[in-house]
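Researcher: Batch entry, complex prediction.
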Amino acid sequence: MSGSVPFIRRLAVIGVGLIGGSLARALRTAGAVGEIIGIDRDEANLRQAAELGVVDRAAATVAEGVAGADMVFLSVPVRAMAGVVREIAPHLAAGCIVTDGGSVKAEVVAACDPLMPAGTCFVGGHPIAGTEHSGVGASFATLYQGKRCILTPAATTDRDALATVARMWEAAGSEVVLMDPEKHDRVVAAISHLPHMVAYALVNAVEGYDRFEESILRYSAGGFRDFTRIASSDPAMWRDIALMNREGVLEMMDHFAAYFGQLRSLVAAGDAEGLERFFRDSKESRDAIL
Amino acid sequence: MSGSVPFIRRLAVIGVGLIGGSLARALRTAGAVGEIIGIDRDEANLRQAAELGVVDRAAATVAEGVAGADMVFLSVPVRAMAGVVREIAPHLAAGCIVTDGGSVKAEVVAACDPLMPAGTCFVGGHPIAGTEHSGVGASFATLYQGKRCILTPAATTDRDALATVARMWEAAGSEVVLMDPEKHDRVVAAISHLPHMVAYALVNAVEGYDRFEESILRYSAGGFRDFTRIASSDPAMWRDIALMNREGVLEMMDHFAAYFGQLRSLVAAGDAEGLERFFRDSKESRDAIL
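Model: Structure tokens for the complex:
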């Protein structure tokens, strides 16, 4: 792969953490990119990104960082996305594509799209990949291998720009799926945002259980730790996701609460048959996605 | 370890699956046991246990299997435990210790203890270890290494028998913790039973979400799969646990629902500070158990 022609001449990555850093590594490994410029308000993280060779050069300012780039990748908290686009807009070269990796799309696309200067294009995106770790030190080139990346074009999105962003994610090893931003937000509310809400609430509930003098979390074993892994995710990032996809998250929380309440009724009633059916349905659905 | 003296002369394992099979393997590796007899109503599984050398011999009947054993380990569904004890009681040798690996203790201990003949002893136990797989083919000698095993002696439990069971689990690599059966049931309701109820309900909720024509489970990635791993656990086993630890499970389900409802209110109110605090508290608790 490293012998292929770099179809991205200069990539600017704003936010060189797990997501941005892993994309940079993947595109470099694939030979898809000429030069990578890093931009990050966390100076220590940016220095590390340069030292690790994840970026070729750390930019001192956002203006300098995006100058001459044909592709800009935004990997900042979803609530910060529009502010960053507003800041970089005057400095973008003609033909530049700006795309993002945020977990919420409807509000982000609606806010960023109108901010783009003529002759440039915004393409909303969301790689369905990640770990509970943060920062460039946690990034790795294969994070996106075999994963899906959802791109959420608006009606106005330039088709060539969309094709280039799709090619970028394919070069990183992902399968690209197109979806409208509203559907994206409902889908990820179900498969990602809801599980995070559940995991965060579960850990707090168990920690807050005060029937005994000792914390019972000390008795937790591998199953509990695996189950609650995602509760170790970045709180500020998840605060923003909950705020930006509020409607989708609330819908899924209520949807889950109804199923949880149904299970509670089966337990309370001691309904052996109903319990076994509930558990068996779940096992079958879960086994089917392995 | 394999040079140590076998302090269990003959071990009968009733239910040679993941739990019973792994204990047999661990004790043999540790040189803690002379002979291992397997008993299982699933004939194919029992044959496999003998073929794999997990047991030295498969018993044709329960009576024959426990005859002459100084230790009997019960690894059958918790609702079947008392019935098995009733069945084996007339065939136990004097001094025999019967212990179990069930996930519920108060009802099991209360039911089994009175069934034991004079000169024999029941010791309730529960190794906090497992995987989502079942059967002797899934068993392995290191399952209990570094894990906790909770023993739940009753007031009448013979101290020497308790010490022998503790020594057995230590030989298998576990740290033994003593706890009264009622506390045990609340602790595991929190760290194990509740997460299973949540995972089962979550998978059913996502599968049952019908806003779109396609099943959105197909978009799930590693995080969702890890999070819902325990929803692939044996439905009949979890039906029995929910029935046998009903009070503890209901208490924890309600306790969780209160925290989940609190989080829902924060999302609905768009309370950025409250959300971040909720997530941060959870992350801190979870990171502390790593």
